[in-house]
Write a structure and sequence with these properties.
Length: about 375
């Protein structure tokens, strides 16, 4: 695992005489209310950002995450760096500049910023006060499970929590394949979708793995030490019968779908899923498809996945994408929920409470 860690920083907000400093969300330069936080993504947690393989040596990759434009690049040692995509001089995008190994140079006036967001050179005025200042937001980043992850702080005072991959992705006995897509739907729609196992019996009824089981069921919520299960009480091992929502270093869902013996060795097919907001209307979707296999069975499973199963899995994912992209932007504002929707209601309460708490933190000290 390649690791690059940088302290989350932001351009300092002005402090007027006799007035407390206003807390702003890193990268936004302004205070966000609870509704905006819920729409663009909750902070103070780790998020998957982009596949590692998409950022090679010398690359300058611009990504938008949680409503902010960021620059990804590898330094001279190959470590991933993640900076806000704004030059501290005139806010020109650094991503259209030049990669200089351990730093990037803005194309507009040549200002050079290193991987920690510190200005190391101002060619137009050597020795000016900007040199040596850390005024570009930089994030703590990690690489694991084929992906780049970043800790998204709420404010410049946020403490970076320890990075930890989901158990399935950090177990040598589990073989996985990563998957990345971008959907034109809000991130909250993805979370609602995976906390709704019953949709598998309808939307995915004609798929290769979710054709079994009843189209009616009763559900319950079962608490865990890392989140909660939402599961059918009268069916197990037939379809998409349960999902666990996990709150660890990052938020993710963990679930299993039973597979027939014809799908090869390894028992049930596991999925780890995450969604990272791009902005209030689009999201980056990450999945890891897993099976517990070893030795020769591992080789058989991986061969079968690449030659037979991967295409089928993409077809199932496309069914979700097409449905969620077809929903109205306010589809979750005027509904008539019933017992199957206990998981949906629960995840919304969790996220709403987080958004309210983070908005309260931002408002502290504002007079």
């Amino acid at each position: 695992m390649t690791t690059a860690t940088a302290t989350a920083t932001a351009s300092p907000a002005g402090v007027r005489a006799g007035r407390a400093k206003t807390k702003t969300v890193v990268g936004t330069r302004r205070q966000l209310d609870a509704a905006e936080l819920a729409a663009t993504g909750l902070r103070d947690r780790w998020y998957p950002i982009y596949p590692s393989r998409f950022v090679g040596p010398g690359d300058m990759v611009k990504v938008r995450r949680l409503g902010v434009d960021w620059l990804l690049f590898r330094d001279a040692k190959g470590q991933i760096r993640m900076l806000e995509d704004r030059c501290p001089h005139r806010s020109a995008p650094l991503s259209v500049g030049q990669h200089l190994g351990d730093r990037v140079a803005c194309k507009y006036h040549g200002v050079q910023v290193d991987g920690r967001g510190t200005v190391v050179s101002v060619p137009g005025m050597p020795g000016c006060a900007l040199e040596g200042k850390t005024v570009t937001a930089s994030l703590a980043v990690e690489e694991g499970a084929d992906m780049i992850f970043a800790f998204m702080p709420l404010t410049e005072d946020s403490v970076v929590t320890a990075f930890k991959l989901p158990d399935r992705l950090d177990n040598p006995e589990v073989s996985w394949f990563s998957n990345y897509a971008e959907w034109n739907s809000p991130w909250r729609f993805y979370m609602d979708n995976v906390l709704d196992p019953m949709h598998g019996a309808f939307l995915h009824r004609d798929s290769h793995s979710m054709f079994g089981g009843d189209t009616s069921a009763r559900f319950r919520i079962r608490e865990t030490d890392r989140g909660f299960f939402f599961e059918k009480t009268d069916q197990r091992g037939k379809n998409f019968d349960w999902v666990e929502y996990c709150r660890e270093a990052m938020d993710y869902v963990d679930l299993e779908i039973p597979y027939a013996d014809s799908a090869g060795p390894g028992g049930s097919f596991g999925i780890v899923g995450m969604s990272t907001p791009i902005d209030a209307h689009t999201s980056a979707v990450f999945h890891w498809r897993t099976r517990t296999v070893s030795d020769w069975e591992r080789d058989v499973w991986r061969f079968m996945y690449k030659t037979t199963l991967e295409e089928k899995h993409w077809a199932v994912l496309e069914q979700d994408r097409e449905l969620l992209e077809a929903l109205a932007a306010d589809a979750d504002k005027d509904e008539h929920l019933y017992q199957h929707d206990l998981g949906v209601a629960r995840i919304r309460r969790v996220h709403d409470a987080d958004a309210q708490n983070q908005a309260a933190i931002l408002s502290e000290g504002v007079v």
